[in-house]
Automatic annotation (TrEMBL):
<feature type="transmembrane region" description="Helical">
    <location>
        <begin position="33"/>
        <end position="60"/>
    </location>
</feature>
<feature type="transmembrane region" description="Helical">
    <location>
        <begin position="72"/>
        <end position="92"/>
    </location>
</feature>
<keyword id="KW-0812">Transmembrane</keyword>
<keyword id="KW-0472">Membrane</keyword>
<feature type="transmembrane region" description="Helical">
    <location>
        <begin position="242"/>
        <end position="265"/>
    </location>
</feature>
<dbReference type="InterPro" id="IPR001594">
    <property type="entry name" value="Palmitoyltrfase_DHHC"/>
</dbReference>
<dbReference type="GO" id="GO:0005783">
    <property type="term" value="C:endoplasmic reticulum"/>
</dbReference>
<dbReference type="Pfam" id="PF01529">
    <property type="entry name" value="DHHC"/>
</dbReference>
<keyword id="KW-0449">Lipoprotein</keyword>
<keyword id="KW-0808">Transferase</keyword>
<dbReference type="GO" id="GO:0019706">
    <property type="term" value="F:protein-cysteine S-palmitoyltransferase activity"/>
</dbReference>
<feature type="transmembrane region" description="Helical">
    <location>
        <begin position="189"/>
        <end position="222"/>
    </location>
</feature>
<dbReference type="InterPro" id="IPR039859">
    <property type="entry name" value="PFA4/ZDH16/20/ERF2-like"/>
</dbReference>
<keyword id="KW-0012">Acyltransferase</keyword>
<keyword id="KW-0333">Golgi apparatus</keyword>
<dbReference type="GO" id="GO:0005794">
    <property type="term" value="C:Golgi apparatus"/>
</dbReference>
<feature type="domain" description="Palmitoyltransferase DHHC">
    <location>
        <begin position="142"/>
        <end position="273"/>
    </location>
</feature>
Length: 297
């Protein structure tokens, strides 16, 4: 059950030996390698985008979920953002098809998403550190948590990954490696908003630069013919990155809408999961996809 925990890589850091788990190293090589393979032909692109979610889900279900707090998904997020930014700024922008103000808007959205993601993690760390601070087992007011044996305020739920109770807990987002609760939900929603805009807008700018575009309305362009992108590796890599960005952006939009809907209902994702199945209505699809896209626990 703990196969990946047995493999560690020594790393020198300021005179001391550090241990880097294999699960955190895999995305460093896997993400760029998959992008290069997908950029070879259209067939490779289809195969990579179809099989990668399945393989990641298989890896998580059979190995990663047995680790207490794997960094696999968080490192995947960081590597993906860095790779997409480098491809855009180094390869797409020099094509001179993008206006400076368009690039500025894109960078602002990227920085906004990164900053809000950082604040989401920062608030989550403080939330975890302050949870139950100063209380001994069984002390305090509120209901007694059967796992951590502490009395918690209403609407606080235990997170097995963080090993504490989180007020207004939504779920543990492994892509950010932190728990989402009432203290950082607003920053998480802002991260989803800025990131979704950055991914979708960057995808459109990239596709209209490497493909033959057509004018939709005024200066709004959409890609038309992308049949010749695979004749040059760097252009194909831009095209693959654009598809990747578009898919990620659409997933983020779905989760943003889902959370806004939960806020409208006055409930949380964690509370919705504890309701009878008949009260979930059309949530079955999102619930079935959540282990792949958000890894709720």
């Amino acid at each position: 059950m703990h196969i990946l925990e047995k493999f560690r890589m020594p790393c020198a850091w300021r005179g001391s030996a550090k241990q880097i788990s294999v699960d955190a190293v895999i995305p460093l090589f896997a993400v760029p390698a998959l992008a290069v393979i997908a950029a070879q032909t259209l067939f490779c692109t289809i195969i990579i985008f179809v099989t990668t979610p399945v393989l990641v889900h298989y890896l998580h279900h059979n190995f990663l979920r047995f680790l207490l707090r794997t960094k696999f998904f968080f490192v995947w997020t960081i590597v993906s953002v860095i790779m997409l930014m480098l491809v855009f700024e180094i390869t797409v922008v020099p094509l001179l098809e993008i206006l400076p103000e368009e690039n500025l808007v894109f960078i602002i959205c990227v920085v906004g998403g990164i900053w809000c993601g950082y604040l989401t993690r920062l608030k989550a760390d403080r939330m975890t550190q302050n949870a139950g601070q100063g209380l001994e087992l069984g002390e305090g007011s509120g209901e007694l948590c059967l796992i951590c044996r502490r009395r918690t305020p209403p609407r606080a739920y235990h997170c097995r990954t963080c090993q504490t109770c989180i007020l207004g807990r939504e779920y543990h987002c492994k892509w950010l490696d932190c728990c989402i609760g009432s203290s950082n939900l607003r920053w998480y929603l802002a991260c989803l908003l800025f990131s979704a805009i950055a991914f979708i807008y960057g995808s459109n700018l990239t596709m209209t630069s490497v493909c033959h575009p057509f004018i939709l309305i005024a200066t709004v362009l959409l890609p038309d013919d992308c049949s010749d992108v695979y004749y040059q590796l760097d252009i194909a890599l831009c095209f693959v990155s654009a598809i990747y960005s578009l898919l990620v952006g659409l997933v983020l939009v779905c989760y943003l809408i889902y959370h806004l809907w939960l806020i409208y209902l006055g409930t949380t994702s964690n509370e919705r999961r504890n309701l009878p199945p008949s009260s979930h209505y059309g949530e079955s699809v999102l619930k079935s996809l959540s282990p792949i896209f958000c890894c709720k626990v």
